[in-house]
Amino acid sequence: MSDASPPSRSFLGRHQFLIYRLFSLSGLVPVGAFLVVHLLTNASVLGGPGAFQSRVNLIHSLGPLLVPVEWAFIFLPMLFHATVGFVIIANGLPNVGSYPYAGNVRYTLQRATGMIAFAFILWHVIHLHWLGTPLGGGRFDPHHASSSTARALASPLVTALYAVGILSAVFHFANGLWSLGITWGLWTSPAAMRRASAVSIVVGVLLAAAGLGALGGMRALDVDAAVTIEKRMEEFKRLQEGTPPTPAAEPRGRAVSRRSEAADEAVRDGGR
Amino acid sequence: MIKAVDGTVTGNDHGHSAGGGGNGHAASVAERKPIRVRVLRQDVAGGESYWERFEIPYEPNLNVISVLQKIAARATSLDGRAVAPVAWDCCCLEEVCGSCTMLVNGRTRMACSSLVDKLLEEGDEIELRPMSKFPVVRDLVVDRRRLFHSLERVKAWVPVDDSYDHGPGPRISPEEQQDAYPLATCISCGCCLEACPQFTKVETVQRAGETAESLEKRRKDSFEGQFVGAHAISQAMLFNSHPTGRMIADERLEALTSAGGIQMCGNAQNCVAVCPKHIPLTRSIARAGRAATVWAIKRLFDR
Predict the structure, then answer these.
(1) A110, A242, A258, B222 — which has fewest CB within 10 A?
(2) How distant is the Cα of A76 from the closest Cα of chain B, in angstroms?
(3) What global pTM score does this model have?
């Protein structure tokens, strides 16, 4: 190993400082900023399926630009952050057993939650965003934002996995915020670090409340009522734009109502 | 002192009556269980390590160095075999030279300021291991060349190494002195490096028939690109705050932003927690981070 040229002379060695600083920055912008927007958008479901649907409609008003924007500002920065993160984790040697100080516990948790959040996000994106049911849960339908999400989260196991994933991502972001301030030299004295830590905790608690609130809101949702509202909103949008009904959206809605009719029948049968 | 010893004795489960006065105190010390010590030994650099147990009679107010001295005087293991005395490093015995760092009960500490009466509160047996982040030379003696190599990398000195008369140095305000003094108390003990999860061991073992020059060159190469560590970052900040030392501030920042520099810090903050001199290492690290930020931006736009 020592016969090879020293790691400091390789491309990654020569640009290590820049790469690690970009890693630190990407955790805040755009990845962290996206997390905040995402969790707050989700939490809008607590204001009813209509509130959530209108926010989703706003995002989807990007139309064909949505996919490139997603890749440029969310997926690629996230993959960069995760790749460098895994290199950092691989080079570290956690020792929280010998030195169980609060800072060291946070250092270890930062790495653990990073890995959990990465695995969670991978699963979350593939099942809710791309593939749907093969990976458990269901697929997100932007025309039926609340009802499709509520159906995907119907299983208690899926909800539990989401709770773990959300809390991991939130801890990673909040603690990363504190750590980032030291890395860039924003807070330097121990007192300033303590104040920054308090602010990070508040940010973390509020974000966790938003994330778990959204999860609870989705589970508490009356799916049939949500479908009605969403269909009405879609109809209204269509009338506004003057476009004919999209063939993709129609059968989905019908399938839902058919299912809910069947459920209603089952309830009535049970009552008899 | 006597009061402290009495406190430990009465806290013990021997439960003798306190009526004996001076004699009672002497008897209670003799009554105490002998001190058991477990040492992780290694005969040669790069060799296998093994545990060996020792026992010495209890005495109040011992430190780990005096325990090692008593073990050396007997050179007999717990199972009665005559063994080579345990090798260790020490010099000043007052937390100034920084040479007796070892893992006492699993934690990095100075052996000289590790008091046995306190250690016995942690458990019946005292465990001694060499530092885990530096190559073992023998038993508890480690090779800390990398620690000093890091100080060379960041040029932790004031560059006035010539015979020319530069006249009186610039004045330093009392505020600046107050700020710098704690950093100047660093004893290069390596505790901050031992406890750092980002600082990992680098060992170069001599090959069969290898010359000392070749080994030394390989060793120096192996340090390149490895994390410099909290002590070097703090010393770089100390000399960058000094009016004369500041003259090569950019060279230090260049070193701190090269491979293995400040960016390797993971903010676990163990360094500041274990530092025997209570040096504000994380403040130095954050200041170095700020200086590196400014320096990187300047370099980007000024060239």
Answers:
(1) A242
(2) 22
(3) 0.87
